[in-house]
Specification:
Blueprint lengths: L2 H25 L16 E4 L5 E3 L8 E6 L4 H17 L5 E6 L5 H11 L4 E4 L4 H5 L7 E5 L5 E6 L7 H11 L12
Parallel strand pairs: 3-4, 4-5
Antiparallel strand pairs: 1-2, 1-5, 3-6, 6-7
């Protein structure tokens, strides 16, 4: 191939790549980062208890702790009991916990795993792991605290002591439950 032929070949490759880039940018909607102060993306996953498909719209108007996890993830397994304790304390005030498993297994295995540990908050299963793309996660566990308006107010990468007083105070504030019910105060 002559030097002129090489340049024509290089220019053709650069032109094709440029065209693909322009086409990709044109056809792709603007990517919005998912983080604090952004609207929580909608999703659809299977409720492991009922087998029904559930979308985030089912939690509209609720304060939600959304936890993306997997049964094989040691930090996920470590933080689950603290999530249950937070749920036990604040569910009467309206807190919703939605733990979405991204295990590449069937829903029955996830349900059995949850049942063995007596977790009572909502557990969903997204075998496709689409939730990870929707929420732009970097791994598991990742958690999002979402207010009643559907806005993410906190994003956490990694395991957290969700029943720590700092976390409980945040949730109480979002729930408007700063005051303990009279039966908790001993009255």
């Amino acid at each position: 191939m002559t030097q002129r032929g090489q340049w024509i070949f290089v220019l053709a490759i650069v032109g094709a790549l440029s065209g693909a880039l322009v086409l990709g940018v044109t056809l792709t909607p603007a990517l919005q980062p998912v983080g604090v102060e952004s609207k929580a993306p909608d999703f659809i996953a299977v409720n492991v208890a009922t087998g029904d498909s559930v979308s985030f719209a089912a939690y509209e108007g609720d304060v939600v702790l959304l936890n993306i996890w997997a049964t094989w993830c040691t930090p996920c397994v470590t933080e689950m009991p603290a999530i249950q304790r937070l749920y036990d304390e604040l569910h009467p005030h309206g807190l919703k916990v939605v733990a979405i498993s991204v295990d590449n297994t069937d829903v029955e295995r996830v349900r059995d795993w949850i049942d063995e540990r007596d977790f009572t908050f909502d557990v969903l299963h997204d075998q496709s792991a689409r939730i990870e793309r929707e929420y732009q996660t970097t791994g598991v566990p990742e958690s999002f605290v979402i207010n009643r308006d559907g806005i993410i107010v906190k994003k956490v990468i990694g395991a957290v002591e969700w029943d720590h007083p700092t976390q409980v105070a945040l949730m109480r504030r979002l729930l408007g439950a700063d005051e303990q019910p009279s039966e908790e105060r001993g009255q």
